[in-house]
Amino acid sequence: MKLGFLPPMERGRSTSPDWVIRLAEMVEGLGVHSIFGVEHVVIAEDYEPLYPYSADGRMPAGPSTVIPDPLEWLSFVAARTSDLRLGTAVIIASQHSAAILAKRAATLDALSGGRFEMGVGLGWQREEYEAIGVPYRDRGRRLDENIEAMRALWRDAPATYHGKYVSFDRVHCDVKCAQPGGVPIVIGGSTDFAARRAGRLGDGFFPFVISPEDFAERVELIGKTAREHGRDPQQIELTAWPGSLDFERGFDLPFVRAYAQAGASRLVISGMESGSAELDDMRDLIRRYQDEILARL
After folding, report:
1. pLDDT category, 63, cuts 50, 70, 90?
2. Would you place residue 50 in the very low, low, confident or very high pLDDT band (cuts 50, 70, 90)?
3. Residues 235-259, buried b or exposed e (16+ Cβ, 10 A)?
4. Could you give the CA distance from residue 29 to residue 26 in angstroms, rounded to a whole number?
5. What letters, b where the CB count within 10 A reaches 16 and e where it falls short, cover 122-158?
6. pTM recorded for the entire structure
7. What are residue 90's phi and psi, to 5 degrees?
8. Strand duo 2-6 + 34-37: pairing
9. What is the DSSP string of 104-150?
10. Confidence of residue 60 (pLDDT cuts 50, 70, 90)
11. Residues 59, 52 contacting (CB under 8 angstroms)
C-alpha cells in the first residue's frame, strides 16, 4: 500500500521556501510515496454556494488559507527531492489551455525525472471560471478534450487534434515527458460521471469525501466502463483519502481497510489530520499512520 500526503495550505508556511524545503525533505525521508498540490486560481469573496462536499455549499477555508499554484509549488519540491512522486489533487484542467498545460506538465515531468502525475477535475466555482475567462457550461466536455489533446501533444510529433473546444494541426510540444506515454492523468471527483471518465480516459481515480461503500460502487463502474472501451481496469490506479470523509476515523482500521478491500492501492492523509501545521506533529502523524494502519492492512 502506497502512502500519499496532502500538506496543509497555511499562509506564512505554504509559500515559505524554508518551510516547504523542510516539509518536502521530511516527507521523502519518511518513505512517503507521493505529495500533492491543489488548485484554485482565485476564490470569490461572495461565491454561489456550489461546493459539493458540504451541506451548506461552502468550502472549508479561512483567512489563513493560501493555495499556491500547484505546478510551480511541485517544481520547487521536485528540486529538493529525488524519489517523491508529485501529484495534483486536483488541477482544474477545464479552466486551462490544453497546449499550455501540456507544456508545463511535460517540463515538470522532465525536470523531476518522470515523477509527475496530474490529477484533474472540473471545479465547482462559477466565479472562478468567470475570472479566468472560461465558460462554466460544458466544462465536462472541455475537460475530456483537454485530456485527449494533451496526450496527443505528449505522444505525437507533429500532433494534430480537433474537438469542439481544442483544435490544432501539426504542432510540436518540444519538451518531452520523461515518462513513456506522457504524464499519468488521474481523474478527481466522487460522482458516477467522474468514475466513468476514469474508466474511459484515466490512468487513475482519486475521489474526495466518499464513503467506502460508495468508493466500491465507483470502482465497479470504472471497471465496467473501462471494459466497454477496450481498456484494462487493472491499469487504473485507485487512490482513497478516508479522512476526507471523517477526520475522526483516519485511524479506524476497519474503516480504512474497507477502502483497501475495494481496490485502493494508495491511501492519502492530510497534514491537518495531525491537528496542526507544525512539522514535528505531521512527522508523528505519518509515522503513526505507517505503524498503526499501513502495517496492519
Report:
1. confident
2. very high
3. ebbbbbbbbbbeeeebbeeebbbbb
4. 5
5. bbbbebbbeeeebebeebeebbbbbbebbbbbbeeee
6. 0.97
7. -130, 170
8. parallel
9. HHHHHHHHTTS-EEEEE-----HHHHHHHT--STTHHHHHHHHHHHH
10. confident
11. no
Annotated domain spans of the chain: 2-296
Residue tagged 520523461 (cell numbers):
178
Who's near 274: CB < 8 A, 6+ residues apart?
281, 282, 284, 285
Can you point out the beta strands (E) in 125-265? Answer: 159-162, 167-171, 185-188, 204-206, 237-240
Pair 168, 97: CB distance under 8 Å:
no
| Residue linked to cell 471560471 | 129
How far, in Å, CA of 169 to CA of 132, rounded? Answer: 25
CB 98 within 8 A of CB 65: no
* Cα 263 to Cα 168, 204, 222, 296, distances in angstroms: 38, 12, 11, 16
- Residue appearing with cell numbers 481497510: 257
- CB count within 10 Å of CB 11 equals 12
Fold of 2-296: TIM Barrel (3.20.20)
Asked if 151 and 105 touch (Cβ cutoff 8 Å), the reply is no
CB count in 10 Å sphere of residue 172: 10
pLDDT digits (tens, 9 = 90+) for 209-268: 999 999 999 999 999 999 999 999 999 999 999 999 998 999 999 999 999 999 999 999
Number of other residues whose CB lies within 10 A of the CB of residue 29: 12
Element (H, E) at 12: none
Q: What is the C-alpha separation between 182 and 150, in angstroms, rounded? A: 9
Residue with cell 504542432: 171
Interval 77-128: pLDDT, tens: 999 999 999 999 999 999 999 999 999 999 999 999 999 999 999 999 999 9
Grid coordinates representing 68?
499556491
